[in-house]
Amino acid sequence: MSGLLSYVLFAIGDYEITVRMVCVAVIVLLATKGLASGIARFVLRPFFRRNGVDLGRSYAVTRIIRYVIYVVGIFMALSLLDIAVSALWTAGAALLVGIGIGLQQTFNDFFCGFLILIEGPVEVGNVIEVDDLIGRVVEIGLRTSKVRTRDDIMIIVPNSHLINGNITNWSHNRRPLRFHIDVGVAYGSDVTLVTELLEEAAKSHKDILERPDARVMFRGFGASSLDFELYFYSQEHWRIEFVKSDLRYRVYALFAERGVKIPFPQQDLWLRNPEVLAKAFRVNASANGSAGDAADDKPHESRGSAAPVELSPVPDWATDENGNDGHQATVPAPGHAAATDAQVITRRSIFR
Fold it and tell me: Cβ distance 112 to 159 under 8 Å?
């Protein structure tokens, strides 16, 4: 047995590596790994639990202690193999320079991983926004970190991107965040009633905090609506889109109960020379009528028709600078009755 352990595996000059040296080095490495795992599981984890240390900080401290133990174990294994670390660094200095130039981005990610663990700008469990994607940090490694999105997709992010890029960390200050939803109501609505209903909707949701209070902002006068924003505070960073969805359901129900209308986009179209448009419709109506008379012997074909264009004076606000007014025309679609929803408002002087 002693002869086997003394067997020389590798020799350069006076330097030899025996089976005994390799076995001892392997045992030291395995003991190093077991020591690191044991300290993390039986010492650090109970300590963090007793002192209420959050997940991100405990993860960072555990990782750093693991790396320190691994480095010490590797140096011990090298010394047992009679390898002088200083001589090794000297001999491989030129090689390391070349490797460093070729793998500078990898080394950059490596050192950024240490900076993340030490400084803690991003921690495990944080909800962050990176490259327009929102996710939760599940692991911070030496070179890359893992982020799980709301769709349960795992994203691998280089650590240098978390240090040098613009990252929004929703959980960094550990305080409730403010969110908002946009709401538009029809012109003529009671803005005081709208404000009360929006505040009532916010107060009725269990995931919206009572303090600070939810606030309503009258944002402005839109093209088709009076625009409001409902601001509220919540600690549900991960499920905030569902909170917003529930809030919109509640707002819609309250508006329906109190008769508050949510408008749809509307536009006024101004045309040049409405009499030309009216003449074209009359000609079209005559042509469709003649075609219909010729098709009387075809029972399966329907006769086309066009309703006349009805012109009425426009309101006072539609007159031009010379006092000339156009016409407000209700233009029906060919083959249908006169339209009731769409009105075309014309003013001659603007488009002449």
Answer: yes
Tokens of 349: 């002087």
**Alpha-carbon separation of residue 106 from 100, 114, 143, 156, 158 (angstroms):** 9, 13, 7, 14, 9
Q: Tokens standing for 277? A: 């448009």
Strand partners, 212: none
Consecutive 10-residue averages of pLDDT for the chain (352 residues): 70 76 88 90 86 76 86 85 68 63 76 84 90 90 90 92 89 86 95 96 94 94 93 92 96 95 82 78 75 53 45 46 46 42 38 37
Inter-residue contact 344 to 273 (CB < 8 Å): no
Estimate to the nearest angstrom the gap between the alpha carbon of 120 and the chain centroid.
Answer: 22
Residue partners of 147: CB distance under 8 A and separation at least 6: 128, 130, 133, 135, 136, 137, 138, 154, 155, 157
- Cα separation of the two ends of the chain: 111
Largest Cα separation within the chain, whole Å, is 118
Instruction: Give me the sheet containing 215-221, strands edge to edge.
Output: 177-185, 226-234, 215-221
Q: For residue 124, how far is the Cα from the chain centroid?
A: 19
What is this structure's pTM?
0.59
β-strand 327-330 against 310-313: which pairing, if any? antiparallel
Is the CB of residue 352 less than 8 Å from the CB of residue 271?
Answer: no
Peptide bond into 313 cis (omega under 30): no
Quote the DSSP letter at residue 311. E
Phi, psi for residue 317 in degrees, rounded to 5: -70, -10
Which residues sit opposite 10 in a β-bridge? 17
d(C-alpha 149, C-alpha 138), whole Å: 10
Q: Per-residue b/e over 259-280, b at no fewer than 16 CB within 10 Å?
A: ebeebeeeeeeebeebeebbee
CA of residue 276 relative to chain centroid, distance: 52
User: In the 8-state DSSP scheme, what is residue 42?
Assistant: I
83 forms beta bridges with none
212, 216, 219, 223: CA torsion to nearest 10: 150
Which residues 6+ apart lie within 8 Å of 181 measured at CB? 229, 230, 244, 247, 248, 251
